[in-house]
Amino acid sequence: MTVIDNDWSAPSVAAPLRNRAGLEIMPLKSPIVFLLSLFVLVPSAVCAKERSEAEARKVAQRVLARAIVIDTHADTPQMMLDDNYDLGDPASPYMISIPKMRAGHLDAEFFSIWVDVDWPKQDLIHRALDLIDVVNEQVARHAGDMEMARTADDIERIHRAGKLAALMGVEGGHIIEGDLRVLDIYYQLGVRYLTLTHTKDDELGDSSTDKPQWNGLSELGRHAVERMNRLGMMVDISHVADKTFYDAVAISKAPVIASHSSCRALCSAPRNMTDDMIRALAKNDGVMDINFYEGFLDPAFASAYKAIEPQMDADLKAAREKAKQEGKRLTYGEEMKIQQQYAAQLPRPSFEKIADHIDHAAQVGGVDHVGLGSDFDGVDGFVPRGMEDCSKLPNLVIELARRGYSEQDLQKILGGNLLRVMRQVEQVSQQLGRTVYGRR
Ligand SMILES: [Zn+2]
Fold it and tell me: Smallest Cα–Cα separation from 297: which of 388, 358, 363?
């Protein structure tokens, strides 16, 4: 969940690929490296040579036929729980559905178990359990299409069987209510990552969007990272303060992930990652999954959004009040209609901005450390043109192929890197021994 954004604008139907004539051209490597790359495979090589549109489409088709495409962050469970949203709905207004996943070649989705930081403290775990339940219920209802995955091997097996893999990550350290044993419970229920903070500081550490109170990870936060290493649960550093990030990579015995974070060098949001952080993440052998929210991709959008935000929030508040007076609640679909009207006034970036952030992360940290973390259904519709929902993922693959990524590198970015990290996390857990007793 991103909490600052919004609109459900562009219709999901076939937005044509843009004319690419005006696009930035990737700098060619030095002549010597370029010549060498003709003969040997250069590890982590980024964008050897641009391809034509027709070539790029062929490459994308081949890659999508083989790759396991994994997205590490979608907030769809709240729609399932609060609005009885069915993942099989062929007319889904949301960004993730089974038909859209099939159309977009999206093979595995990490559903976010997100609970608002202002949710009543005594009910955080109950709400999380409700969300976990509803994901399991949806997967059971669509057992012919989807299956829960708990390991990297599960994802591969489910993919081989022609089904979609569903996974879960808990978004925010506040959702364990200060008791590390709850991590064990979430793990047993299938949760495979925990985001250390959401938008406010919590018992585990400082958030990037709050005043620091722990100077990074708290002592409980350090125990949490250690416990997650033992359990085999990925440590997610999206949303955390820079210092919390550095503390986490310093003590984690396993690679960490940023489940939905973009590059601060391209768009200065506090929860985007600096180049130095990207390098530290690469050194930790982790993976940074690029967030598709326009406000984290494009500074022009971010400032235009700020200007309309107060009025849009006031309209949303009034609509919620009105629904409440009528004994109802405003559904996510109704909220999106209001946001859509505002979105129409904003300069919307295209999906190529996502490719820009992938390029940047790959150039700074290496192609082994970047992936996809859409934040679909958590950004109130504010995703770039040409990436309105997960059925549009092939647009991005074609664009990356056009920019010259090798087929092998594309497979890594689309999901291979995340599978590698998941396996390493599983191995570290086996080495450390899973058993931990006590609250900390
Ligand atoms: Zn988030």
Answer: 358
